[in-house]
């Protein structure tokens, strides 16, 4: 059994699959008081919105806009089957150390936000077991990445 040594890590976000971002955002705001901000578009054909939680954690709504690659095709099948929990991410300081310990390859991801800015990250995951978290490390200045969520409207209280 592989045992990871202690490394700095924390829950980053949970990914919730939706057929329609706007419908899901309205429903989750009405049911749970979550307020979503439009996110952007990933290269594989998915789009997202995010609900800021206790900073810097967030809930990500993810939908397929157009199927551009095999991972997006897999997500579309899961969403079509009614699956909502698509993943959960743990942010780490050194993704290369985690990848080496797990014997996995580091992959790259990006998003083009609605304002045209591009965000990037590197991640490690176990594709054969979707119940396990993926590990993620973001590129760029973390204060710049967090700025849009810092100005988000407060969660409504019921």
Characterization of the model:
The protein is α+β, with helices and mostly antiparallel strands and 158 residues long. It has one domain: 2,3-Dihydroxybiphenyl 1,2-Dioxygenase, domain 1. 25% of the residues lie in helices and 35% in strands. The chain contains four helices and eight strands; from the N terminus they run E-H-E-E-E-H-E-H-E-E-E-H. It has an eight-stranded mixed beta barrel, surrounded by four helices. Strand 6 (107-113) and strand 7 (118-124) form a beta hairpin. The chain is globular and about 40 Å long. Residues 153-158 have low confidence and may be disordered.
Keywords:
globular; alpha+beta; 158 residues; eight-stranded mixed barrel; 25% helix; 2,3-Dihydroxybiphenyl 1,2-Dioxygenase, domain 1
CATH topology: 2,3-Dihydroxybiphenyl 1,2-Dioxygenase, domain 1
Element-by-element helix/strand order: EHEEEHEHEEEH
Number of helices: 4
> How many domains, in number, for the residues?
1
Q: Largest sheet, described in full?
A: 8 strands, mixed, barrel
Order of strands in the sheet with most strands: 1-4-3-2-6-7-8-5
Cα(first) to Cα(last) distance is: 46 Å
Based on CA atoms alone, the radius of gyration comes out at 16 Å
Strand tally is 8
Query: Hey, roughly how much beta strand do the residues contain?
Result: 25-35%
What is the highest CATH level, the class?
Alpha Beta
CATH superfamily: 2,3-Dihydroxybiphenyl 1,2-Dioxygenase, domain 1
Query: Percentage of helical residues?
Result: 25-40%
Question: Which second-level CATH architecture applies?
Answer: Roll
Class from helix and strand fractions: alpha+beta
- Name the poorly predicted regions: 153-158
Shape: globular
Mean pLDDT: 88
